C-alpha cells in the first residue's frame, strides 16, 4: 500500500505554481522526510495530502486510493500543522476532550499517560505551555487518534535542541513500534538523518528525488542524507536553467 | 517516555461512522460559551432596565388615564404631559435597541470561523475525523438557534415596555421605527445578523475586520428594509377624502389631485398657506391665551381642507392599516429566515470547498 500517491499533481496560487508535475508513490511503513528550501512546495504537498486544499492539476490519493479529505482518509490520517495550532484558550484537558469529540477513535488513556510522562499539566491552558510542550501536546493528540499515517509540517522548527530530540524520539517510536507511517516536512536536515528511511526532495515546486534513503545513498555515493540533499539543492539552479 | 505504544493502527479499516452531533455540541458549547454568556448578559441587562423603567412608565400612564372625565381638557392635558415626559426617552431606547441584532451578529457570528482562520486552528479542526461540513453545521446551527431564541424571549419585554405609547395612540406597532424590535422580527434580524457574521468571518478571515463588516452589512440591510421594503410587503390601501385615518394606520404617503391631475406638494402648500392666512385672523378671537391658539389653528386648518374639498380638490392617502401588523411580521420574519438559511448553507458549502 502506498500512503501517498500523486500523479501529475500541481497546485497554483494565482499565477504561481507552488507545486508542479509531482508524481510519486510513498510506500507504507516509512518515516518519509520531505526536504527542500523555503517555498519549495513542502506545505502545499502536505496540505494536498491531508485534504486541506484541492489540486489544480493531476491527482493525489492517500492510504491506498482514498481521496484526501474524505471521511475514510480523515479518520486514518493525523496532521500536525506548522507551529502546532492549538486552541490557546483551552486547557490541555479540554483539547483532549475536543479532539475526542471530533474524531471517531481517540485513545484517551494513551494521551493521559503520555502527557503525565512528559509532565505536562492537564489544567494548563494550551497557550501558556512552552513551544516544546505545545509541540508535544500536538503530537500526543495526533498519536492518540491511532492514525495509519502521521503528517507533520515543520514540527521541530521552533524547538530547542532537547525538545527536538524528544519530539523525534517519539515520532520514531511510533513509527518503529506501532507501524505508523510518517510524512514529515522539515528543513532541519540533521534531525532527519536519524529517523528518515524515505526521502522526497522538493525544489521550486518540483520533485527532485524520491526514493528509499539507503538506495539513494548507495546510488549517489553520498555518506549522509544531509550531503545528498545539499548536493541536489545546489544543483537545482543549474538544472532549471538548462 | 517513548515506552508507551500506540494501539494497532490497522485494526479498523472500514469507512467510519459519522461523529455524533451530541459530541460535537460539547465542542461548540466549550468554545463559544463566553460569547453566549455575553449575549445572555446583554439581553438580561437590557430586559432588567426595560422592566424597571417600564414599571415607571406604566405607573405614570395609569395615573394619567385614571383622570375623569377622560375627555375633559385637564385630563387630555395629563395624557399629553405623560407623553412629553416619557416619550423621548422611550424613543431613544428603541432607537438604541436596533443595534442589538447587529452586535450579536458581529460579536458572536463573525468570530466563529474568522478566529479559526486567523489563528490557523482550522488546520487542526478540518483534519479531524468529523469533516468540514459537519463541523461547520455543528457550530453554526446551535449558535444560530440559541441567539434567535434568546432575542425571541426578549421581544415581549420591549412590547410591554412600549405598551402605554401604543395605548395612547402616540405610536403604532407598525411604525418602522419600532417594527423590528418586537413580534418575530427581532429574533429574525438577530438570526440573519448571525448568518451574515458567519459568512463575513469566512470570507474576510480576520476577526476585527469581519466584525466591522458585519456591523456595516446589517446596518445597511436594516436601513434598506425600513426605508424601502416594509411599505411594499402588501400593496398599501389608498383612501380619498374625507379620510380620517384610524389611529393604528401607518400613513405612507399623501397627495392632492384636481380634475384628475396631481398637484405638486409645493404648489399645494402655497395654496393652503395663503388660505390659512386669510381664514386664521377671521376666526381668532381677541385676548386668546397661548394654549388655546393651538385649538384655533386646528379649526382654521379643517376649514381650509373643507374649502378645498368642495372646490374640486381631492386629497389621497396611501396607508397600511394596523391590522396588517402580524402579516407584515410574518413576511419580514419569513424573508429573513430564508436569507439566514441561504447564508448558512452558502457558508457550509464554502468551508467544504475552501482551498488554503
Quick rundown:
The complex is a heterodimer of chains A (242) and B (356). With 242 residues, chain A is an alpha/beta fold.
3D architecture notes:
The complex is a heterodimer of chains A (about 240) and B (about 350). In chain A, about 40% of the residues lie in helices and about 25% in strands. Chain A is α/β, with parallel strands linked by helices and about 240 residues long. Chain A has a six-stranded mixed β-sheet, sandwiched between helices. A three-stranded antiparallel β-sheet of chain A has the order 2-1-4, covered by helices on one side. Residues about 240 of chain A have low confidence and may be disordered. The longest helix of chain B is centred in the first third of the chain and has 45 residues, at about 20-65. In chain B, strands 1-4-2-3 form a four-stranded antiparallel β-sheet. Chain B is α+β, with helices and mostly antiparallel strands. Chain B has helices at about 20-65, 75-95, 100-120, 120-125, 130-165, 185-205, 205-230, 265-285, 290-310, 325-355, and strands spanning about 235-240, 250-260, 260-265, 315-320. The chains are: A alpha/beta (about 240), B alpha+beta (about 350).
Measured as a percent range, the helix fraction of chain B is 55-70%
Strand order of the largest sheet of chain A: 5-6-7-3-8-9
Shape of chain A: globular
Number of helices of chain A: 9
